[in-house]
Specification:
The chain is α/β, with parallel strands linked by helices. The chain contains 9 helices and 11 strands. The longest helix has 14 residues, at about 120-135. It is globular and about 50 Å long.
Length: about 220
Amino acid sequence: MKSKQYLVFGLGRFGFSLATALYEMGQQVMAVDTDEELVNDIAPYVTEAVQLDATDETALESLGVSNFDGAIVSIGQNVRDSVLVCVLLKEMGIPYLAAKASDELHAKVLRKIGVDRVIFPERDMGVRVAKSLVTPGVMDLMQLGDDFQIVEVLLPARWEGHTLAGLNVRRKYGLSILAIHRRGNYLVSPSADMALEAGDTLLVLGKKEDIEELDA
């Protein structure tokens, strides 16, 4: 399957984890941030890393936005910059746009300007973890076009006590583990040698059919 091209703006914990996971799954990823250190940190793990002020329309145009399949704006705290970048991306013809929101008012504005998916990473995960306690299963968090989605999955019993490296999750299952929710804590970008425990809930990036195989 031909890989898709994604832009990720904002390289905090969520943006960094999402960008690197997409790249590891064979997608083309351009990661963008104003912070030189963050750009340098992610450079080895994505297709291209660019230090750029995305609120600068001319600079943003230089990325060739319309050539990408989708963009994720992970600028959650600076509402002005988040909204401005989203507006510019829509005007430049991005086919699919997701954005992280800091609160409900921010989310309302994002929806009004045409953002396809508004994300509250920690809050959304917390709500779905609560639901998963009474309704076990897989809950969709975010669709990335037709092929990939981010979902939350209760840890399969057969994975208990194993490490991510030992399970070879990416190669064997075609999935990336973005975070683990464990006893009220969110463990973002878990290390490969972390042992999985009963009761863990996994934030997973992958294709729908691969995710469904976990219940097989």
